[in-house]
Structure formats: structure tokens, C-alpha cells
Amino acid sequence: MLSLVRQRTSCSNPSSFVFSRKVSFQTVNAVINALTSQAASSLPAASTSSLHGLRLAIKDNICTKNLPTTCSSKILENFKSPFDATVVSLLTANGAEIVGKANCDEFGMGSLNIHSAHGPVVNPFGVKVASGEVVERRSAGGSSGGSAAAVAANLCDAALGTDTGGSVRLPASYCGVVGLKPSYGIISRWGVVSFADSLDCVGVLARDVRTVRRVHDILAVYDSRDPTAAPSGVREKASQLLTSHFEHVQGDSLNGLRVGVPQEYFPTELQQSVVTPVRRILEQLRARGATLVPVSLPSTPYALSAYYVISSAEASSNLARYDGIEYGTRVEPPPGADLVKTANVYAHTRSLGFGKEVQRRMLLGTYALSADAFENYFLQAQRVRKLIKADFDRVFCVPNALASSPSAPADGVHVLLHPSAIETAPKLRGPDDATDAQSSTLDAYLQDVMTVPASLAGLPAMSVPGGQGADGWPIGVSVVGQWGCDELVMRVGEVIESCREDA
Q: Which PROSITE patterns match (predicted)?
């Protein structure tokens, strides 16, 4: 077992994991653009603000005017935004310190953070604290791997990521930190470079739930500039529905809380060493008064296929703007190229500017939107998405505030609990940093199988460290709630933290 893992095994408080800053920058590759002290000093001081003293890293697909925003892509290598995203403005206005931009999969497309123009992110869990030696190279997860690794390596207190199909929760699970994907529309997306508009969410990562809540509560406000933002009335409606069904978790007591355990979230691909810590957490929740309820979400097996059709189709549309003329870095065609045909200029720039994974998904999305495939792929995926949302509404006792006539079963559950990932962090191998999962694209896509359903339904979901697998690497446990029940999800997450400390 790794010496670092042995040190962590005896430590119950994740916030006490300390890494060398030098090692983290050079070896982990989590932060790609650090904010200089001169730029930081130009930010407004807010000593009495709620986030004063909190250091945050910002994922590289969230616009910042003081730092480049490249989306970890060659096609945006020279781009600097003239404005801050809403979430960045809210952070700095409340006293937070932005320490830099976090590495990510190109345009958020990836589960292992290996599809980046800046190189892969190395999971800091495999780095010795004292010497900085990399004992074992493993993925930090994607696409927000840089955000998760920066938190785990103590480069910052918290970080912003984006979650389209699991891109906050999966890295959180692999790196042993907390990662929250809020309800869709709760946190503003204005100033966030789009991947898939109907799925993208800004998420928060930190070493404990308390810090996640501090950041979330500042960011979870209505923004009129974001057309997908949930209006204030809907937010209030969701809060009232939750209160009328379940007031709150009293300290560590869970009396009256019904926790659903979905049978479809324990597939054959799930490592047995992941199951054991999850079962231990469930038993500890039961010991504190929670009622465990087996539930079924029958449309879950179709979620992954539907997600990749929908997200790729939306990505194909969104990334069409990067043509080297209006947006993005232009790559001049070779001598003799027919420049009369605008398509030749586009094709040359996009072929060299976009990485292979982004090209693959754009081609998939373009095909799904073509006349011959639209009905059989895109529309069919939307139908599956509707079935998945209905599955969740049938098991939660809290009605969906987004429904025109909210209703829910009286014997439903308050939250769902399941493993965050099918395995511990996959290994990075070879000079080109190929991974075990990268050898098969389908295997790499399978990493998202546990996280995609909540994304398709737009539900709040949070990965909390749940222990370690047989190999000594972190395992995450996900808590999922009804739309707008973000606070309940975080409260249950805090109880899971206390369960680990008492174990």
C-alpha cells in the first residue's frame, strides 16, 4: 500500500490532508494559470464578507477577466474574456481569493482529465507528502479533475467545476473530496463556456460539506442574464415543498428520514471493493434513525446512451461557433489551399484546433441531428430522458417544484444513496498518459454510468468521501435529492462525514 495512503488511513479529517505546493503545481498539473500577486492585490478587499480568506480555483471553462479562459483547448489558447462570469463576480464580491484556473478535459468532454491541451491531471492521492515522489500515477477524474486535484492537494480551500454528466462528482470520488452538482438552474451559467446547455451546471468542490455550503449559498441566486436560471418563485416553491414534507435533519439524528437505495446503481461493472464501504455507510445511517428503502429506477440502463446522444448533439451546435473567423484561434491553411471555399478555412482550423475526443463527440452529435438519424437518435434520447425524470418523481416523497401539478407518493424517499463511481481512480500509464479505460472509448464513457441519470433529470447530487477501496484509494458515496432540495442533500452529506469520523 502507498505510504501516503497509510498516512491518510489514520486521519479522519479530510481537511488535514496537506501536500507540498511545489509538488502539486509541477507534478499534479491541477492549476494551469495562477493569478499573480499583483493581479490579486487589484481585487476589491472585503474583510467582513462571508467568504473572506477563502481561496478558490476556477475551472478553465468559466470566464475570468484577469486570467485566460482556454477550456484546455488549442482553439482558445489566446482567449481572454473581457468580463467575469456571474459566479466569479459573486465570489470576489464576497471576499474570496481566486488563486488560478484549474485544468480540465477540453470543453468539459471527458471522464479522466486526459483530454487537455495542458496535459493530464495526476491524482494527488498517489504523491508522497514529504518527498513529492509520484508513487502511482492515477487519473484525477474528469472533466473537473484539476478542480478536484487542487482541493485535494491543498492548493485552495474550494474550487468551481462544471458538471454536465458527472464532471464534478466523479473527480470528487477519485480524489477523496466533496463535490456538489446543484439543481439545474440554481447557480448561474452566465459566463460559462457551453458544452451542453440543457445539462451544464456549475458545481462546488471542497474538502468538507461545510465549505461547499458556504460557497453554494453565495452562488445560488437568481441571475436574469442566464436564460436557464430558475426564477425566484420556483425556488421558493421548492423550499416550501421540502419544508412541508420534512423539516430538517436534527444534528446527527436521521429519525424520519427515508433513504432510497436504487437497485440499478449496483451493476455488474461495479467493483466489489466499492460496494463494501457504501454498505457500511448505509448501516451507519440506519443506526442513526434513517429508514433504508429499496427502490427501482427502471429507465436507468438507458441513461448513458441517451446522455451521450443529447450532450453530443448540443455540443455540436455550441462548438460550431469556433470557426477561426468569428471565434477561436485561426490556423492558416497550407499554401495552395482553396481559400475561396470558406469550409476549407473552417475545416483546417477546427481539425488542428480541436482534440480527438471533442472531434469524436461533435461528429456523433452532428450525425444525431441529421435528417436521417434525428428521429431514431435525438428524439428517442429525449423520450428516454423524460422517462428517467418520471422514475425519480415516482420514488421521491417531495414533489417536483418544476411540475405544473406537483404530486408525490406518500411512502416515497427523501434522498437516494449510491456509489459515485464504478471503481477507484483508473491508472495513468505510458509516456502518452494512456489509461486502462482509454484503451476502449466505450469503457471510458462507462465511468459516467452512476452520475448521468441525475444530470438528465436536473437533480442535486453530491459525492462525499465514503472510505477506501481494497487498493487504498478513495471511494465516493452520492446523495441525490429532488429538484430544489440541495440543502437536504448537503445536510445528509454532513451526517455521512460524521459517520466516517466515528468509524
A: AMIDASES (PS00571)
Confidence of residue 5 (pLDDT cuts 50, 70, 90): very low
Phi, psi (5° rounding) for residue 348?
Answer: -65, -45
Kindly give the interhelix angle for 86-93 and 209-219, rounded to the nearest 10 degrees.
Answer: 110
Containing structural domain, residue 357: 303-376
Question: Which residue from 117, 243, 97, 110 is spatially nearest to 164, judged by alpha carbons?
Answer: 110
Same-domain pairing of 189 and 326: no
pLDDT band at 22 (very low <50, low <70, confident <90, very high): very low
**Residue 462 C-beta-side C-alpha neighbours within 13 Å:** 34
Are residue 223 and residue 308 in the same domain, yes or no?
no
Pairing of strands 55-59, 158-163: parallel
Q: Does the residue 53 lie in any domain?
A: yes
- Taking the C-alpha atoms of residue 340 and residue 60, their distance in angstroms, rounded to an integer, is 35
Report residue 492 as a C-alpha cell: 445528509
pLDDT class for 56, splitting at 50, 70, 90? very high
Half-sphere exposure for 11 (CA within 13 Å, toward CB):
14
In the chain, what's the furthest Cα-to-Cα distance? 75
Is there a single domain that holds both residue 221 and residue 318?
no
Tens digits of residue pLDDT in 454-485: 999 999 999 999 999 999 999 999 999 999 99
Q: How far apart are the first and last CA of the chain?
A: 21
Residue 51 has pLDDT above 90, yes or no: yes
Residue 66 to residue 91: CA distance in whole angstroms: 14
Look up residue 296 and give its amino acid. S
Q: Quick count: other Cβ atoms within 10 Å of Cβ 503? A: 11
DSSP secondary structure, 222-272, as one string: --TT-TTPPPHHHHHHHHHHHHHH-----TT--TT-EEEEEGGGS-TTS-H
Helix, strand, coil tally for the chain in percent (to 5): 40, 15, 45
Number of domains in the chain: 2
Whole-angstrom distance, CA of residue 140 vs CA of residue 110: 11
User: Is the Cβ–Cβ distance between 464 and 393 less than 8 Å?
Assistant: no
Question: Which residues are annotated as catalytic?
Answer: 59, 143, 167
Residues whose CB falls within 8 Å of the CB of residue 102, separated by 6 or more in sequence, listed in order: 30, 31, 32, 57, 58, 59, 60, 144, 146, 147, 149, 150, 159, 161
Q: In sequence order, what E strands does 440-500 have?
A: 461-468, 474-481
What pLDDT does 339 receive?
59
Query: Where is 204: in which H helix or E strand?
Result: strand 201-206
- The cell numbers describing 140, all together, are 484525477
| Total-model pTM | 0.90
Residue 218 lies in a domain: yes
Q: What would the 3-class secondary structure string for 372-421 be? A: CCHHHHHHHHHHHHHHHHHHHHHHECCCCCCCCCCCCCCCCECEEEEECC
Length of the chain: 503
Question: Does 472 fall in a domain?
Answer: no
The helix/strand/coil state of 328 is: coil
Task: To the nearest 10°, report the CA torsion of 198, 219, 148, 432.
Answer: 50
CA distance 339 to 307: 37
